[in-house]
Amino acid sequence: MHNVIPRRPAVPIAHWRHFWRGITREERAAFLFVLPLMIPLLVYWIIPAVASLYYSFTNYSVLQPTRWIGLANFQRLVDDDLFWRSLWNSAYFTVGNIPLMMLAGLFLAMAVNSYVRFRNFFRVVFYLPLVTSTIALSMVWLWLFDPNFGLLNAALQIIGLPPMQWLQSTNQAMPSIILMSVWAGVGSPMLIYLAGLQGISESFYEAARVDGATGLQAFWYITLPLLRPVTIFIMVSSIISSFQIFGPIYAMTDGGPAFATTTLVHQIYINGFRYFSMGYAAAQAWTLFALLLGLSVINLRLMARGMEV
């Protein structure tokens, strides 16, 4: 007798039919509605993300055969002075951009909240830059920052101040980008703060006025504490978006002058699409992802603590 190797029994089609019939009608409908959304998510996000993770361990350069090199790309990051410069510039932009944008957003939200009749008008006006093309905004600000014919230097000369180099100076380029970013992005925190202000009951302020509290005291002891969850959300989500700044950098300075405005995302673009060092660019991208993941974890913890207050 010949020894017969037993085969693993295949899962019968009837089993999957039984499984499908065991799902409720509502669950089937939910699955069918989600399926069209999952296909582009899989094609445009999940598969490219997994591919980039693989390429981060290779010397993939588009023009040459791919070769596995392990952690060499990540070790190269440690010795890359330009990578650390871009990380410092990203942190510099984030620290300079977020406090100004949050303070301006809160001020505008309180101003808009006090004018009920024109509230919708101001919402549209301040949110309009967010839905405008980044390149178009950058072109406008390039004209404003022009050292010879720019409107900002013309205004400085009118009040007797010397003209500034703005984007041409290594010391002034990043503050100029921050100024443009605050103007363009203040609409988002303004709307979120406005929603938070409208969610505060007027009874708190009436009780404060009865107790003799001034407007500043009501703001400090009522408005700010009740806006804490909103403030934490704006702060950490803005940190994540600020570390991904690219459009204004690419359109206005291209990382210059002398790498004064190059950022992490700008370096990923340069290495990937100019030098065709896709493996190294993927390693930089996953390093940025790890950084943003850590910030997201901090976001969730701070949000949880803010909700408990």
Describe the structure.
By secondary structure, the protein is mainly alpha-helical. The protein has two domains: 25-72, no CATH class; 79-308, MetI-like (MetI-like fold, Orthogonal Bundle). Helix content is 71%, strand content 0%. The chain is built from 15 helices and no strands. It has helices spanning 13-21, 25-55, 72-79, 81-114, 119-127, 134-144, 151-158, 173-185, 187-198, 202-210, 215-226, 228-242, 247-253, 264-274, 278-308. Helix 3 packs across helix 15. The protein is globular. The mean pLDDT is 87.
The appropriate CATH architecture of the largest domain is Orthogonal Bundle
Which CATH class of the largest domain applies here?
Answer: Mainly Alpha
- The outline comes out as globular
Structure summary, number of beta strands = 0
Instruction: State the distance separating the first and last CA atoms.
Output: 77 Å
What are the SSEs and their pairings?
Blueprint: H1 13-21, H2 25-55, H3 72-79, H4 81-114, H5 119-127, H6 134-144, H7 151-158, H8 173-185, H9 187-198, H10 202-210, H11 215-226, H12 228-242, H13 247-253, H14 264-274, H15 278-308
Helix pairs in contact: 3-15, 4-8, 4-9, 4-12, 5-9, 6-13, 8-13, 12-15, 14-15
Structure at a glance:
By secondary structure, this protein is mostly helical. It has 15 helices and no strands. The radius of gyration is 26 Å and the shape is globular.
